Nuclease SbcCD subunit D (Streptomyces lavendulae subsp. lavendulae), 394 residues
Amino acid sequence: MKFLHTSDWHLGRSFHRVNLLGAQAAFVDHLVETVREHRVDAVLVSGDVYDRAVPPLPAVELYDRALHRLADLGVPTVMISGNHDSARRLGVGAGLIGRAGIHLRTDPAGCADPVVLADVHGDVALYGLPYLEPALVKDEFGAPKVSHEAVLGAAMDRIRADLADRAPGTRSVVLAHAFVTGGQASDSERDIAVGGVEAVPAAVFDGIDYAALGHLHGCQTINERVRYSGSPLAYSFSEADHRKTMWLVELGPAGEVTAERIDTPVPRPLARLRGRLEDLLADPALAGREDSWVEATLTDPVRPEDPMARLATRFPHTLSLAFDPEGREEDGTASYAQRLRGRSDQEIAEDFVAHVRGGGGADEAERGVLRAAFDEVRVQSSREDREHRQESAR
């Protein structure tokens, strides 16, 4: 059985103020054509369909067209919500849409209710495990503590229990949206740390034939059976070296996995340039970067006059400009984005405490207070989905 594994569409997202809706529409065209060309048996979309909980109308319209086109192909699609999505909004009409072969899995309580497909070798159970906010689902799963590993492990126990009750030889696929140990992050993923711990071990998916992961934007293989498809487009300059693809996965009669990367359309390549302004403008080796979206870091000892306009004469698609003068000691001149790059909310807050104290950082008790505050903010931001679920259950 063949699956096309994709994730992290982030419909509605822009790139440094550049509207990407046309590029996202081109990706949808490519997705539909790939399904048709390779005679795919099911499409797996592992979360972050939208870029935010309340997406702009053009993004919703593109999503609607994508679902109609996939349904018209007669190929089942299984889709889960990610941490950027509003699970409740994405899941509206799931039961009705499911009749058209589009299976939305946004309610954690239904994670052990698979979409079951069959081929000549028997059944394949596809389990959709949406993004789990630990503080909101701990009680639902009876997890021993509030952590990603605890709630995801408890959810996987439910899935394995359901699988054990099915016919011998039933193969299994799990869609999940999480940060799995060994994965490489980029600047464009939203932090999902809780209590300072966000990563879960790949072993949580033991016993499953294929885990189709979403959240990290780089296509990567954790192990033969656990893979990230990555985002179909680059959403930060940290992804300049990414090869954007989808996984075409074939599941053999005994659960054997073979996977092939299918490239996605690139609207414009990315380039990260560094050096003195005059060197960048004159270097013949950079001729191939003139049509790229450019992030330039200038190292001139003195800031040049009108640098953005001068860069644009050679690199008309320059989107980001930073300064890192040669020979200067660290004195706070780095841009705000540079200083924050790669740091969690917790680390940024602790840096602030150290700054206002003149170097004395937060102690363990204070770090605990900060951690609890960030956890509470995440809980509050997801409370709407929980309240809607409770209202629907009445």
Observations:
- The first strand starts at residue 2 and ends at 6.
- The chain has a mean pLDDT of 91.
- Residues 1 and 252 are 7 Å apart (CA to CA).
- The two ends are 39 Å apart (CA to CA).
